[in-house]
Amino acid sequence: MTTRLDALCDALDEIPEVLVDDGLRRAINDARGAIDTLATMIDQPTLVVVSGASGSGKSTLVNALVGVSVVPVSPVRPTTTQVVAIGGPGATEVAEAAELVITDALPPGLVIVDTPSWDRAPDVVEALMARAVLSIIMVTPARYGDQATSDAIAAARSSERLDLVANRLPADAAQRTQIEDAIHERLDIEPLATFAEGEEIRFQVSPIEKVEVVDTQAARRTIVETSTAGICRTIAERITAMAPELGAIEQALAGIDPVPTSDWTLDLAAESWDSARAELVNRAVRSADDVDRSVADTVNNSLVKRLVGSLGPVEVDDIRLDLDAWREGVEAAAGAVVRPRFRKAHRKAVVAAHAWKLPFDGLELSRAGERLLKGDREELAYRARTDLVAILAEVARSRHAAWMAAVERAGGYRPGRLYAAASALAGAPSDDG
Asked: Above 70 in pLDDT, residue 390?
């Protein structure tokens, strides 16, 4: 893959997910598909595929096209049982080929493929023809009318160009003309050249001389490069257009105070720690939800929804752990100052049952709890409430901070890099390295 394609891929990979709506995702997928196509085109040589029935003289035709003997020819059929690629200097591998023969007789970038007969490997031959700039079908009087030849002709029409060569025709001129006409009528294609039985296959103008190896590939790549660059420029422009939305969200966040007052901890109606903790967790989660709603109420667009989705839910397990640690701290503080009028075990049980209630004016202590904590209740309650509010308020603060970080990440993407990479792809000559 070229350096320019690498730069384009990197710029696409760096697009923050929150900026990608359905339309932009389709465009990004289109761009990636086009980049893959370009990479394949750059790595793919210019293919000329030779196909035909067994014993038709395909390998002889390949040698004639190359100009030197590069593949074996034998009267024992079939000679070609695997795909053999013959390429000029620097030719790259052909995936379907079992062998790659390099020869100076062909220009760099051109590969001629000698294939098995159509009826032995139709899928392989068809795949090669679909990528070929030229497919040459070799027919004989004995096989031109069979289904395998018709199927091969149909597949070869997917190539940029199709030529037909007839071999092993009668030496008699009248019979030869009659068969040439029959081939033309049957296959709806006029043979480029015909050769009699035993006649040397030689072209006045070789079919491959019409194959423009460099220009054809360059022209095809230019079209795809231009299309790819256009898609990527559009993506960059759409992301640039999101800047005002990000600015509005950032402004909305600046106007939000994520810290609730201590009043929200006072009106708690719960007799057990488990129920109290569950209610406190719910209130903490609602405080984070309030931050989300405040942003959405100020800036109502799909980008806000994607940003909320990227933040994910509040981690309630962490809140529970913090609250349990808070309760243990309150119990320890209360246990250190209670009056020693009860047995130690009883004091510990009373503290565990009632110390956590101290910050909540609406929760009543038992008679034992009142007697045990009476002298230090106000001080203990103040400290416990202060610590509790800090724990719960941190949930809202963290949500607000997560919003700011998400907006900063989204706003930190620079679409100019994508635009520059797209412009480089479209504006510079093709680079095969």
From this structure: yes
Q: What share of the chain is helix, strand, coil (3-state, %, to 5)?
A: 60, 10, 30
The burial of 395, by beta-carbon neighbours within 10 Å (0-12 exposed, 13-18 middle, 19 or more buried), is given as buried
Q: What CA–CA distances, in Å, run from 271 to 267, 283, 397?
A: 13, 17, 29
- Quick check: 256 and 400 in contact, CB under 8 A? yes
CA distance 412 to 150: 59
Residues of the chain with CATH 3.40.50.300: 44-210
From the candidate CATH numbers 3.40.50.150, 3.30.300.30, 2.40.50.140, 3.40.50.300, the one assigned to the domain spanning 44-210:
3.40.50.300
pLDDT at residue 163 is higher than 60: yes
Name the burial class of residue 101, with classes exposed (0-12), middle (13-18) and buried (19+) by CB atoms within 10 angstroms of its CB. Answer: middle
Give which of 86, 84, 89, 126 is closest to 108, Cα–Cα.
89
Give the 3-state secondary structure of residue 193. strand
Note if the pTM is more than 0.70. no
